[in-house]
Fold Cytochrome c family protein.
Amino acid sequence: MKMSVLSALALAASATLAGCAPSGTDAATGERVFKQCASCHQVGLNARGGFGPQLNGLFGRRAGATPDFAYSDAMQASGIVWDERSLSAFLHDPDKLVPGTKMRFWGIRDENEIKALQAYLRTFQDLR
């Protein structure tokens, strides 16, 4: 019995370390999900556009509108105002929502991960 409990704990720990833990919709899970975004996007007090635009104050912002990033013509012409629905659609399949976007990303298929990422991004909503 002891061995099977220890084996189960070891398996759970290795799954967590490998990033295979079950998804949640909280900001802590969203922070983990954001790590795949962080190579191009920044959030926080000193966030700046770089390879991708900074994502502070994202919700309610018009797509293609931050002054410190050179957006594609497609993104600027998209007419999107970011909210949970539009961001979810974009994260599922960026090219489908905005054909011609410069964002090269395969998408996130797990809706719980998208919701968690949105919760995380909301923590930076008041930063502009």
Q: What stands out?
A: The chain has a mean pLDDT of 83.
